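User:
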Amino acid sequence: MRKSHIAGSRQFFVLRHLMRALIFWVVSAAFLDAQTSLPNADESWTANSENLTTHNNPYRTTESHVKSGNRTVDNTIVEVRGPDGKYEFYFRVETETIQETPRVRLFCVCG
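Assistant: Predicted structure:
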């Protein structure tokens, strides 16, 4: 009976360390997958649209998006049709976003 108790505690010891290793591996794999799946490619685009309504003055919008590294700039320009039929500047909105490096802290409850 004493021998099985020692064998049981040895199995428990091994199983406990295997479970810790498995949990560490799963957390590490999830962390690495999250890091590699973040889009980091630079990109830019521009889109134009025109709104012709029967009751309102027609207007035109130009939207642009420029991403470089961790910095993104979005612009929206709105133009309205003037008395001569040509589009005139009405307003512009520029939004700049800077993404900080994510910080991940791993805790190990060992005991």
